[in-house]
Each structure stands twice: as structure tokens, then as C-alpha cells.
Amino acid sequence: MRAVTLNSVPATPSVADVPTPQPEAGEVLVKVAVSSINGFDAATAAGYLQGAMEHRFPLVVGKDFAGTVEAFGEGVEGFTAGQAVFGVVMKPFLGTGSLAQYVTVPAGYGIAPIPEGLGVQEAGALGLAGTAALDSITAVAPAEGETVLISGATGGVGALAVQLAVARGARVIATARPGAEAGFVAGLTDAEIHVVDFSGDLPAQVRALAPEGVDAVLHLAGDGSQLASLLRPGGRLASTIGLTADAVEVSGVTVHTIMADTSPQTLTALATQAASGALRVPVTATYSLEQAPEAFAAFGAGALGKLAVTCS
């Protein structure tokens, strides 16, 4: 099969022929229709995960997938051949990822059916970013009328988090550069989004909108300590990029370090919202599998939203 691979790290991903995986006991073999690029994939290629997870070369990269069940291993129940599914590859090692024509995934975790009304392209770009966004919003639990600052709102996680925060009735301040980035963020929802320029005096812009401090922060990009300083006493911060309470020099705030929990329940909840139109998966460009290296380059250059990769 064709797949996006790394023969070492750090390295630039390339497309190569590798053996088609076979499902082991408890696994589902999925024929992948669509995947997408995530920060985790870029971090893998950059070598940032060396020492953190086992790497098996040639390493097929990719976390997100959407497609159809091709086969399943011993002991798998609840799936049928040809069933439309999506999710996130969750294994204790790196090497058998989803930027490929086929992928094997555990049957009990990181996979869920695609509901009626959700397109395969959107499903293939939803799993990891959607889970990180939902887990972050759940952690800071904004009440209606509270102000949430989302740093990194132009990325896949941030674009989904903006919508989830608005759905809870929160007032959203989002970071983006003026121009196309600000327009992208403002267009994510019908609600008013207060966009601030992170390349300028961010603290001054945020304090002009929230003089007493914001109630919650989603740290998806930028200086976590600076963002924490913009919280009111008793505020909450969720970080998807490793910020811990020890690194925050602000007393009286709660810090949640987020590790996306791609349970079937979370995936189903996200898919249901997306299928109903309550949550829009912000796919801004689509690449073929052979063009995946170009997708990685665009991601690294700061592309907006989600970049989908068609694999079939």
C-alpha cells in the first residue's frame, strides 16, 4: 500500500510503498478514505517525540482516519465489513499511522461509527483536534457569559474550540493576525468573536476587553505564562502543549494539562454535533496522499484550520 513514511527522525515525510497491515486480535482494519495533518504528526517528523514513544521504522505517520471497515481480528464485536467509521490511531508506539491506504486500530478505543449527515472528509479531520478542543473546553468549564481567551484560534483545535465555547454561551477572545487569519476566526460562528493580534501588545488588547481578567484560557499556542497572567483570580487554564502548574507564576489559578482522550463516547459526541451542523469541521484545503509532503509544508507554514488528505 502507499503511505506517508519516515525512515528516521527528524526528517521530511515522503510517500512510499509499505506492506498492508493485518489486524491482530482486538483490532479493526480500516480502508482509509481521508486523514488529516495534526501537530502531533509534525512533531513526530521533527523528532520531538524521540524518547517519549517507541518509533518503529519505516514509520507510517498519521493519527486521524475516516473510512470503512475492511476486516477485523479475533474477538472483535460491534463492527461489520463496509461500515463507515472514523477516529484516531491510539497505540503505545509510533509506526502504523493513518496517512496510508489502510490502518489497523484497536476496536475498543479511538474508533466510532460515522453518523448520517457527516461527510467522510469532515470525519477524517475531526478526531484528534475535536477531542483536544472538547477536552480543553470541558476542563475549564466556561459558564454562560464568562470570557474565554483562546490562543491559537486559527489552527484545527482552536477553530473547533471557538465554536464549542460559543455553544456554551461564553464570550470568546481569540488570537489571530489581522487580515485572513482574523477573518477566518470571525467566520467560524454567527456569534461575535473578539479577535486580538498576538503579534502586537497582547496583554493590553485583552485587558481592554476584560479589565478584571478573563475567566478561562485555552493555551493552544504562545507564551503560557503570559496568558496565565491575564486570568482573573480563580481563573482556569487548559494547555494542549504541555504547560503545567509548576510553570505558571500566577497564584490562585487552576492549570489543566490536556492529553486528548479519544474515547468512543467523545468521538460520538463530536460526530453527532458535526452531523447536526452545530459544529463545523474547518477543512480549508484537501491534498491527495501523494501530495502529503506538500500538506506537511503548508501546515508548517501556518495554514488555517484543518488540512485533509485523501488516501483512497
From TrEMBL:
Q: Which residues form the Enoyl reductase (ER) domain?
A: 8-309
Q: Which Pfam families match?
A: ADH_N (PF08240), ADH_zinc_N_2 (PF13602)
Question: Which InterPro entries does the UniProt entry name for this protein?
Answer: ADH-like_N, ER, GroES-like_sf, Lipid_raft_assoc_Zn_ADH, NAD(P)-bd_dom_sf
Known SUPFAM superfamilies for this protein? GroES-like, NAD(P)-binding Rossmann-fold domains
Superkingdom is Bacteria
Q: What is this protein called?
A: NADPH:quinone reductase-like Zn-dependent oxidoreductase
